[in-house]
């Protein structure tokens, strides 16, 4: 449906209960959407079939309803849309920008260790601190790649970053970043710093990067509001949008909340969940006040 009103989305992963950091992100989306008279969508990012669980999704819906945040009625669940991601992947494959990689995490670590030992120079890291993929599998010939794929050897699919960037030769890549006042600045991106990123995992025909780009476009998202931890990854998203001929939304990156020890709130560190706070008798209004949304 064509719509000219701004479209925002909150896109949690149901791999645990929501904590205050998620509440902040959802409330920031709500605030900025209200300012621009935009619409709010909810997207469940559940491509990780081992870590995501229906009870966590149910928990997300309950927590958001309890906080009083409302969304457009139709919720998009990524796990129901693998065909959309397969199709996008097929287009990148047809353009010769994708290759299979059979390396395990351990093999990548070892290859990087060996190179560092031989050269005495630290191997480049991506903005999240992980070593860039040393492109080991690109040395396999076409026939060998095909043979191993046909033999059913588990593999991920990677973007050949240099070839992808060559296709965009001469075109500068950038996106519009907006702040809380609505002012906007053009930000240049540098996807090369991520190396040959994974576009499809071993078990599913997509990755976070691919599905977020496909979904933002399919859902007509015009304004992405998310944490600063995803700011650098936006470089990859802008490149994929250009390669796939998809529009680039505007982006706002909000601060990340930390706990008393200064650590970023995270499910993995067992930060207290909204459900815990609710069980302790905390009220939604108090959460909004505490987070600065009165
Ligand atoms: N699903 C991601 C998360 O829970 C957010 C993705 C995004 O906002 O682009 O961290």
From TrEMBL:
<keyword id="KW-0479">Metal-binding</keyword>
<keyword id="KW-0436">Ligase</keyword>
<dbReference type="Pfam" id="PF00749">
    <property type="entry name" value="tRNA-synt_1c"/>
</dbReference>
<keyword id="KW-0030">Aminoacyl-tRNA synthetase</keyword>
<dbReference type="InterPro" id="IPR020058">
    <property type="entry name" value="Glu/Gln-tRNA-synth_Ib_cat-dom"/>
</dbReference>
<dbReference type="GO" id="GO:0016874">
    <property type="term" value="F:ligase activity"/>
</dbReference>
<dbReference type="InterPro" id="IPR000924">
    <property type="entry name" value="Glu/Gln-tRNA-synth"/>
</dbReference>
<keyword id="KW-0862">Zinc</keyword>
<feature type="domain" description="Glutamyl/glutaminyl-tRNA synthetase class Ib catalytic">
    <location>
        <begin position="9"/>
        <end position="290"/>
    </location>
</feature>
<dbReference type="InterPro" id="IPR014729">
    <property type="entry name" value="Rossmann-like_a/b/a_fold"/>
</dbReference>
<keyword id="KW-0067">ATP-binding</keyword>
<comment type="similarity">
    <text>Belongs to the class-I aminoacyl-tRNA synthetase family.</text>
</comment>
<dbReference type="InterPro" id="IPR001412">
    <property type="entry name" value="aa-tRNA-synth_I_CS"/>
</dbReference>
<keyword id="KW-0648">Protein biosynthesis</keyword>
<keyword id="KW-0547">Nucleotide-binding</keyword>
<protein>
    <submittedName>
        <fullName>tRNA glutamyl-Q(34) synthetase GluQRS</fullName>
        <ecNumber>6.1.1.-</ecNumber>
    </submittedName>
</protein>
<dbReference type="InterPro" id="IPR049940">
    <property type="entry name" value="GluQ/Sye"/>
</dbReference>
């Amino acid at each position: 449906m064509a719509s000219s009103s701004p479209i925002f989305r909150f896109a949690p992963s149901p791999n645990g209960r929501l904590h205050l950091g998620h509440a902040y992100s959802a409330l920031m989306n709500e605030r900025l959407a209200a300012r621009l008279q935009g619409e709010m969508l909810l997207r469940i990012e559940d491509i990780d079939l081992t870590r995501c669980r229906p009870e966590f999704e149910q928990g997300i819906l309950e927590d958001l309803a309890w906080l009083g945040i409302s969304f457009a009625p139709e919720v998009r669940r990524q796990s129901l849309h693998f065909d959309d991601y397969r199709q996008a992947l097929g287009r990148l494959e047809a353009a010769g920008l994708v290759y299979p990689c059979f390396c395990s995490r351990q093999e990548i670590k070892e290859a990087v260790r060996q190179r560092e030992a031989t050269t005495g120079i630290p191997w480049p890291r991506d903005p999240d601190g992980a070593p860039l993929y040393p492109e080991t599998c690109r040395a396999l010939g076409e026939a060998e790649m095909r043979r191993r794929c046909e033999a059913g050897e588990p593999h991920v699919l990677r973007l050949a970053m240099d070839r992808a960037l060559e296709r965009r030769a001469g075109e500068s890549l950038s996106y519009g970043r907006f702040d809380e006042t609505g002012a906007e600045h053009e930000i240049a991106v540098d996807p090369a710093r991520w190396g040959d990123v994974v576009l499809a995992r071993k078990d599913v025909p997509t990755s976070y990067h691919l599905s977020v780009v496909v979904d933002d476009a399919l859902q007509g998202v015009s304004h992405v509001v998310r944490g600063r931890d995803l700011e650098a990854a936006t470089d990859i998203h802008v490149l994929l949008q250009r390669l796939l001929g998809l529009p680039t939304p505007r982006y706002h990156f909000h601060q990340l909340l930390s706990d008393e020890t200064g650590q970023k709130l995270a499910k993995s560190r067992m930060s207290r969940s909204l459900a815990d706070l609710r069980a302790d008798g905390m009220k939604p209004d108090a959460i909004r006040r505490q987070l600065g949304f009165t």
